[in-house]
TrEMBL record:
Source lineage: Bacteria, Bacillati, Actinomycetota, Actinomycetes, Bifidobacteriales
Alphabetical list of InterPro entries matching this protein: TraX (IPR008875)
Keywords: Membrane, Transmembrane, Transmembrane helix
Membrane-crossing segments per the record: 27-49, 61-82, 94-113, 125-143, 150-171, 177-194, 201-224, 236-255
Protein name per Swiss-Prot or TrEMBL: ABC transporter permease
Cell membrane in keyword set: no
Keyword Membrane: yes
Annotated source species: Bifidobacterium hapali
């Protein structure tokens, strides 16, 4: 299935539900803007305003606001991973793309966050997307082959394993408050299990986002206005978004 066929499939499935709204392209743009705020807050604010500290409240305030606002991207990218899983014709290749992006983002992310080009104590948020995707594929595989108590026991075990991966590997941990990897996994599971109940899904996701420091709930609001359409003006546009986060991190690492 090529991009044109995927677009027709999306339009066919989403036309009855919503004709106007945010396409996948627009959601990615919005997510990228919020994502960029995190890099700005960590790498560029110290250069522009000085090192954030109690003695430099301007820099501290700007850095904190940028970081908190960036959390709006979490549910957006969680949805994009789930949506990609639904529509991709090659799930292994899709997982490979996430894996490559996570690897490319690793070194500059470590540089920005720890001051070293490699630090095994922390891992960038793209790994959270990758692990959420792996768990999603596994949970769906279990659902198609097992039923009853066996299915749910296996499902819970896989989800718990995913949570432990994120916690132990410190994936996307921000301000020691936001565990991005865990939250991504939670959002993806909400989208998977409640996808046939749109209002319940959005309400649950919004509540989850609100509980997790409020701003992820704002990100869910953008998803409410989505439409099931790619919206790319050029076929190569989607590849730009794969490179965007590593490029942002690299720019920040060179400045920091």
């Amino acid at each position: 299935m090529n991009d044109a066929e995927m677009e027709k499939s999306r339009r066919g499935s989403g036309a009855a539900r919503r004709r106007n709204g945010l396409s996948v392209f627009r959601l990615k743009v919005i997510g990228a803007v919020f994502m960029a705020l995190s890099v700005v807050g960590v790498a560029f604010v110290p250069v522009l305003f000085g090192e954030p500290s109690a003695d430099n409240m301007t820099a501290l305030t700007v850095a904190v606001v940028c970081e908190i606002a960036s959390w709006c991207a979490v549910p957006i990218y969680s949805w994009l991973v789930y949506d990609g899983w639904r529509h991709t014709h090659d799930r292994a290749r899709y997982a490979g793309r996430l894996f490559v992006v996570a690897c490319l983002a690793g070194l500059p992310y470590d540089r920005i966050m720890t001051g070293h080009w490699f630090d095994a104590r922390t891992h960038n948020p793209v790994w959270g997307l990758f692990f959420a995707y792996v768990v999603l594929v596994a949970v769906d595989w279990i659902a198609r082959r097992y039923a009853g108590a066996v299915r749910w026991l296996m499902t819970v075990a896989v989800i718990v394993a995913g949570v432990l991966w994120n916690v132990l590997l410190q994936i996307g941990v921000s301000q020691r408050v936001m565990y991005t990897g865990v939250l991504v996994l939670a959002f993806v599971m909400v989208f998977y299990f409640l996808s046939v109940h749109e209002n319940t899904m959005m309400f649950t996701a919004g509540l989850l986002g609100a509980v997790m420091c409020i701003t992820p709930g704002v990100g869910v609001a953008f998803l409410h206005y989505r439409r099931d359409e790619l919206g790319y003006a050029r076929p190569w546009t989607k590849w730009v978004f794969y490179a965007l986060y590593p490029a942002m991190l690299l720019a920040g690492a060179l400045v920091a």
